[in-house]
Design goal:
It is built from three helices and four strands; from the N terminus they run βαβαβαβ. The chain is α+β, with helices and mostly antiparallel strands and 107 residues long. It has a single domain, classed as Alpha-Beta Plaits (2-Layer Sandwich). Strands 2-3-1-4 form a four-stranded antiparallel beta sheet. The radius of gyration is 16 Å and the shape is globular.
């Protein structure tokens, strides 16, 4: 039976960035020590808090974004955010963390 018990202190860190920052952020994460991995997913930013900068975005009514997600200990996630802030100080990046209640591989 797979282990799906919660690991104390684990969080899911979600970063939302414009697509033009995907490569820089991915490079930074690939160099991060002790980061097991991360997932990148294409997304669309909608709403009044989303700045539509490019003319095509204003026509479409949404901005292309990328979700980057990783699971880590809370202290590691905080350190990762600090490293991102230092490396990309003016990045249009939104983030959140949520507790991980369970996780594991099914196989």
């Amino acid at each position: 039976m797979p282990d799906d018990s919660p690991a104390p202190g684990l969080v899911l860190l979600t970063l939302v960035v414009p697509v033009d920052l995907e490569e820089a952020l991915s490079d930074l994460l690939l160099r991060a020590p002790d980061l097991a991995g991360f997932t990148v997913v294409a997304a669309e930013g909608h709403g009044t808090s989303v700045a539509l900068v490019e003319p095509a975005e204003r026509v479409r009514g949404y901005a292309r974004r990328v979700y980057v997600q990783t699971v880590a200990q809370r202290a590691r996630a905080d350190a990762l955010l600090a490293a991102i802030r230092a490396a990309l100080p003016h990045a249009n990046l939104y983030f959140w963390m949520t507790p991980v209640l369970a996780g594991g591989r099914l196989a």
